[in-house]
Every structure is written in structure tokens, then in C-alpha cells.
Design a protein that fits this description.
Length: 280
């Protein structure tokens, strides 16, 4: 049985005035960042900074990627109230040892500052990713789909976008003040879909942000074996990707990219690139 979720949407942007280089006052849009405090069975857990586009999915995915719940069926309801800035999670049977499991908190890097409970690397080596490949043509299709996507970033900047693809087909696109929020929202979305959509076997995860260890681990926990970023990768992100055999592709813009790990999953098609210019 799927949980009951409210649909507490909030405006993604707000208008403010700003002074430009000519001394003129412009009206511009900025992301409407807001705080959302999460309570699990009336126990305060964490405060997330978010745009609030899909807060229920964000909370669901956060619980999933923190490994606090193992199945969506464990959640009875998620109720978000923006008047008080709170999300109330009600579980069916409680979360065992929640105090001990959330005692260690790591504040992660990046926009909005993510929080990870417990050892970030715990159980990484138990993750087994499915066999999957991506063609160079599909990679270019993903990059182009992101380029054409209407986004809050285009109108106001200051946010990260994440998406889940099947081949070149975009299944879901999420923006938030932090890339960790966006991937958690996608994780929540996956849990509410059919078994086919829940499986990461034929999926590719895309993010505008850098591939940190947190992002790589969360992708792997979602069962997604290929990640693409228009940014780069950190040392820990690279180490984890290599340990897992996860294909991490960064600096993906236009027809340029760097494949940092598991290159055997990327099927190159050199004819798509065009002739290499001879060195002067």
C-alpha cells in the first residue's frame, strides 16, 4: 500500500528589485528557498532547505537514501504544511533504533548543505549495480534534452537540476537549491512508480552539479549504474564510482565529455564527433 501524500506546492521563485551595472533598478526573479523541518513519528529529524516544488517526494527520497526505511510500504503518510514549514511523517511500525542511526550526522558539501546520517561509506561494498550500457548518441541526446528543458535556472539561476532518463527519454526532472535534494526527490518519485520505473537497471541519472561521493552513493542506492554531470567529479566520488563499477561521466556539454570510471559501460561512436583538428 502506498503512503498518503499531501500536495503542498509552494512558489518556486519570487520577484525582487536589483541594481544593474547601469544604475537602473530591475525586477528580477530569485529562487524561493525555504526551510522544511521533518518530523518522523513526532520526533524532529532534520531541517531541509528547499524550493518546495515536491516536498513530499523529497522527504520520501531522503528517508530512502538515508537508509532509514527499506520500503515505501513502511510509510503511512507524509503531510507537509508550509504555514509552519514542517513535514510530518507517520510510519506504520516506527523506525527501529532511530536515535542511534541518526546520532552521527555529516554535513555534506554543496549548495544548500546536505546532511547524511551515519557512516557515508557504510555498506557501499554491498551494493551491486546491474549490467547496463549507454551509447554516445544517447549521451548526446541526454545533454541536448537538458539544454532544451524549461527550467527555474534559466529564469532565476542559483539552483541545481537533476533528471532520470531511460535512454534519451527524460522520465522526471527536478530542481532544488541543492543537488542532494533533487536526487532525493527523484528517489522518492521512483518509489511511487511501477516496478519497471523503480528499477534503475536501464536508467541514467543526470545532474548539473558535481559528482561528490554523496551523489555517487545515492545513485548506486537507487540502482542507477550510469551518472552524467555537466560539472566534474571529486576524489571521493571518483573512488566510490570505481569501487562500484559505476560509470561516471562529467564535463558533459555539447559533444564534449570525460568518462571517469567504468568506461566499458559507455559505447563510443567516434563518427558522431567529427574530424579532430590537427595540431598547429
Amino acid at each position: 500500500m502506498l503512503p498518503y501524500l499531501t500536495q503542498a506546492r509552494a512558489p518556486l521563485t519570487r520577484e525582487v528589485t536589483a541594481l544593474n551595472e547601469w544604475g537602473d533598478v530591475d525586477t528580477v526573479s530569485i529562487p524561493a528557498e525555504r526551510a522544511l523541518t521533518v518530523y518522523v513519528d513526532k520526533r524532529e529529524l532534520v531541517t531541509l532547505m528547499t524550493l518546495g516544488a515536491q516536498p513530499e517526494l523529497l522527504v520520501l527520497g531522503f528517508l530512502r537514501n538515508q537508509r532509514l526505511v527499506q520500503s515505501v510500504q513502511e510509510i503511512e503518510s507524509i503531510t507537509v504544511d508550509w504555514d509552519v514549514g514542517a513535514a510530518a511523517v507517520k510510519t506504520r511500525q516506527g523506525i527501529s533504533d532511530i536515535e542511534a542511526r541518526t546520532a552521527k550526522r555529516v554535513v555534506t558539501t554543496g549548495c544548500g548543505q546536505g546532511s547524511v546520517f551515519g557512516d557515508l561509506m557504510a555498506e557501499v561494498d554491498r551494493l551491486v549495480l546491474p549490467a547496463a550500457t549507454l551509447t554516445q548518441k544517447q549521451l548526446y541526446g541526454i545533454v541536448n534534452a537538458i539544454r532544451l528543458q524549461e527550467t527555474t535556472y534559466k529564469s532565476s539561476g542559483s539552483v541545481h537540476g537533476c533528471a532520470l532518463f531511460r535512454g534519451e527519454e527524460m522520465l522526471v526532472f527536478v530542481e532544488d537549491v541543492g543537488r542532494h535534494n533533487a536526487i532525493d526527490t527523484i528517489a522518492g518519485w521512483m518509489w511511487l512508480q511501477s516496478d519497471e520505473a523503480m528499477s534503475g537497471q536501464d536508467k541514467v541519472f543526470y545532474t548539473t552539479g558535481r559528482l561528490t561521493s554523496e551523489m555517487v552513493i545515492k545513485s548506486a542506492q537507487m540502482g542507477v549504474p550510469i551518472v552524467v554531470s555537466r560539472s566534474g567529479i571529486t576524489q571521493m566520488g571518483h573512488d566510490v564510482a570505481q569501487r562500484l563499477g559505476l560509470c561516471a561521466i562529467g564535463r558533459a556539454t555539447n559533444k564534449r565529455f570525460l568518462c571517469y570510471s567504468a568506461a566499458e559501460r559507455l559505447l563510443l561512436q567516434p563518427g558522431l564527433v567529427g574530424a579532430r583538428l590537427a595540431a598547429a
